[in-house]
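Hi support team,

I'm opening this ticket because the web form for multi-chain structure prediction keeps timing out on my end. I have pasted the exact lines I submitted so you can reproduce it. The total is 657 residues across two entries, so I didn't expect it to be a heavy job. Is there a limit I'm missing, or should I split the entries? Thanks in advance, R.K.
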Amino acid sequence: MSRVRIYVPRETTAVSVGADEVAVAIAREAKQRGADIELVRNGSWGACWLEPLIEVQQGDKRIAYGNVAPDDVPMLFEAGLLEGGEHDKRLGPVDEIEYLITQERWTFWRCGLTESLSLDDFLAHQGFKALTKAWEIGADAVIDAVTASGLRGRGGAGFPTGIKWRTVADASGEQKYVACNADEGDSGAFSDRMLMEGDPFGLIESMAIAGFAVGANKGYIYLRSEYPLTHSILARAIDTLRDAGWLGEDIQGSGFDFEVELHLGAGSYVCGEETAMLESLEGRKGIVRYKPPLPAIEGLFGKPTVVNNVVTLASVPNIVNLGGERYAGMGVNRSKGTLAFQLAGNIRRGGLVEKSFGVTLRELIETYGGGTASGRAVKAVQVGGPLGAYLSAEQLDTPMDYEAFVEIGAMIGHGGIVVFDDTANMAQQARFAMEFCAIESCGKCTPCRIGSTRGVEVIDRIIEGDNRDANYDLLVELCDTMEDASLCAMGGMTPYPVRSVLKHFAADFATGSDT
Amino acid sequence: MSVRKIAQRYDNRAEMLVQVLVALVQQNGWISEDDIRELADALNLSRADVHGVVEYYHDFRTEPPGSHIVKLCRAEACQAMGGRELAAHAEEVAGGDTTLEAVYCLGNCACAPAVMIDGKTYGRVDAERLDALLASLAEAAS
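Hello R.K., no limit was hit. The queue was backed up. Here is the completed structure from your submission:
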């Protein structure tokens, strides 16, 4: 029998539910049986609810088995795992799993497919094809393609990427930088992490394309410290590319120099704000800067800097390969292309779902997510992280579209979708929004620093029924102040979840009696 | 590795202060007043500069932690799956040599609740699983 390839993801979620132990058990069992196997550590396909999801190569098919526990391994071998044998946990060919095949994988197409840290596998799957093409067509054409694609910043702000790149390219100065924002702090968000763990070379190629387009020879990745596995994967990927001549001076004889430095954050949420991130990259407290000047003009160390989120950057290679128009052909209105939505919280089939904009929340939560994990009714859905509004079950038909969300006082942000069932107390969630802001505020501006603490107190009084009407008015006024007068989105958007609870779930405040 | 050695690894560049502190906490678990003094000297910064940065970031402990560090995700996705109750349970059952910390998102939100124990992330953690994980720590120690 020839050697059998078995894929076991090396990705935080899969590992958090036992993938490493499964890999060890498979190696042990194969050894005992004298079976010739090759263990491949791929990224995750993003069907988190099926993790650990392993695959066995059979011809050109990969047969998947889901929710595999280490204890299952001997029985799986007994059932003929190596021939893709029948078993309770057998899901069939991975490319026939409905959750996955109905997605539109523009940015995440290599995640799960390839061995994350194999440069050969990357090169065999279009690795560096886009960078090579960029060298051929030139920097201007790359920026034109990105502009034509309509790609907007996927970190949450939704700023047009092409305009940002053009601004940096046109800015004067010899030294420019690319800063990749990998400080994915929003609860419910894990797409950056999955991309970095599943396609680390792809991210670095994307940064190199950005560097080439704007004239930067150095890139920084600012990675949050809560992602230690991601850190080790990225660090190894950078070393591999350096050794292979894909990073450094005169890359592959192109005359283009590009180096990447990997930095770790230290547990500050606000460092995901671009100017706070730049401060942290410069070794200081992660305190937000005044804008202007924009980072595109005066960014890292005062030099013109492209600051882009991981997913924004990783969307670029296919834009270069297939053309901006192809990307712009997907999506709706001014929300072009795809977004990697993340289904999280109380959801039966949590995971990553990359779809064109325009898909509704209902389709994501019901068709993909299968409703709540608890089987109870959906009460609220927080979209876009801790600064995003809580939507009610009546709002699930809202299409995923930046502008449509703004219209209902919400935001898509980074595409994290956290589902709550009908046991949730939304007054507590509103309180938490203020509490979180108080914990994470950088302290530079007063509305955020003080307003958040006062917000917790006022909400507590409302919950206790102390002067409820007056405190309710006070809370609304406080929200106005924070929204209008805060320096960045931390204080400026904390009122979003609070207001949405006041609007849709006011009954949850009425637990105490008015005095 | 001494503080000065770590700083040297980053060429004593002042802009690497956060990275030096990250490495120091990874190695020792915390940052002492002596560390701050040495670092200020090595990176040519004032003690106030270093102190300010240490104080700013949640990861930079200024007290030695217990022999195990358990970070419980307290953010929304985990709240939706019983994270508050899990945290209350952890407070009750964790041993004295365990440092419990809140963390706002481990990025494991599709398999909530999540906890990180000594740098490793675990998903789908209910009270029973947390008990088992804590028991295995105690076992490893004895």
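A quick check on our side: The mean pLDDT of chain B is 96. Let us know if the file doesn't open in your viewer.
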